[in-house]
């Protein structure tokens, strides 16, 4: 992220990423509304009230309505997040503005109040975040560029996490995430429609590789080697790397 590491005060469970993402989006949209429209409507008050004790400042232990302090704390907390969301942030090396864009798309699929808030911030009242809105919010909240023309080649889009929706000029198009994917990233392991979960185990890896794991793990632990290169499909490589890391005591 844009800084070091540690969520309040112990390591975060998998559900912490979902709670933080939700609070991050709510606080960010409220801050952007304050900066862009001056006096936000009752929709934004209702959005803030809907969080109860799960607002960003409470979760992070930062002063209320101190956006800069919250961003610093979020950057420190991100490397400690566990579960699918934490792994995605680490794997894609996402920065705060990219996490915010992804989380905004995801939370927009579950919050009607957020739908209404986005409709007030965009013309002509679009319910999904437009590329122009994401660009403006990224600049205002994080001082980071997220230009509409750069998004088709962004790693979140290339990886299939986010999808650009629409046919008009790029700024008028929207960014979206599949609700099932966002639910999975937030820790819901429910199988998607027409799918079934795969059993986790060494049986999915080639026998030849499974037989080499103890030797490779010993070499890594002893320092005889520091690097192992995997060739083949990315998903298979990640599974093999995870299995080897666990055997070497480096999960």
Number of strands: 2
Portion of residues in helices?
Answer: 40-55%
Largest sheet: 2 strands, antiparallel
Q: Average the pLDDT over all residues and give the rounded result.
A: 87
Number of DSSP helical runs? 12
- Give the H and E element order: HHHHHHHHHEEHHH
Beta-strand content bin: under 5%
Which structural class should the secondary elements be placed in? mainly alpha
From the N-terminal CA to the C-terminal CA, the straight-line distance is 20 Å
* Radius of gyration, CA atoms, in whole angstroms: 20 Å
Number of domains: 2
Which geometry do the CA atoms define? Answer: elongated
Strand order, largest beta sheet: 1-2
The low-confidence parts are 2-12
SSE topology:
Elements: H1 14-37, H2 42-49, H3 56-60, H4 67-77, H5 83-91, H6 96-107, H7 112-121, H8 131-142, H9 155-158, E1 163-165, E2 174-176, H10 179-185, H11 207-222, H12 234-247
Antiparallel strand pairs: 1-2
Helix pairs in contact: 1-5, 1-6, 1-7, 2-7, 6-8, 11-12
Summary tags:
elongated; two-stranded antiparallel sheet; mainly alpha; 251 residues; disordered N terminus; 2 strands; 53% helix; 2 domains; 2% strand
């Amino acid at each position: 992220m844009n800084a070091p590491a540690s969520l309040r005060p112990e390591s975060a469970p998998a559900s912490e990423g979902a709670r933080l993402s939700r609070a991050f989006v709510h606080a960010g949209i409220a801050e952007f509304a304050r900066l862009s429209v001056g006096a936000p409507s009752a929709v934004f008050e209702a959005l803030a009230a809907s969080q109860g004790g799960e607002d960003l400042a409470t979760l992070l232990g930062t002063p209320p309505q101190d956006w800069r302090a919250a961003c610093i704390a979020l950057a420190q907390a991100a490397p400690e997040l566990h579960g699918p969301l934490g792994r995605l942030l680490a794997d894609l090396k996402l920065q705060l503005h990219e996490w915010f864009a992804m989380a905004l798309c995801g939370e927009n699929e579950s919050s009607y109040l957020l739908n209404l808030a986005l409709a007030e911030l965009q013309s002509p009242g679009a319910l999904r975040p437009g590329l122009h809105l994401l660009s403006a919010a990224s600049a205002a909240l994080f001082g980071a560029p997220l230009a509409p023309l750069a998004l088709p080649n962004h790693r979140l889009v290339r990886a299939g996490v986010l999808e650009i929706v629409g046919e008009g000029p790029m700024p008028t198009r929207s960014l979206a995430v599949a609700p099932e994917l966002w639910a999975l990233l937030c820790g819901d392991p429910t199988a998607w429609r027409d799918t079934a979960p795969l059993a986790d185990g060494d049986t999915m890896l080639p026998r030849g590789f499974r037989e080499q794991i103890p030797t490779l793990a010993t070499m890594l632990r002893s320092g005889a080697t520091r690097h192992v290169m995997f060739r083949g499909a990315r998903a298979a490589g990640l599974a093999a790397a995870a299995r080897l890391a666990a055997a070497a005591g480096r999960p």
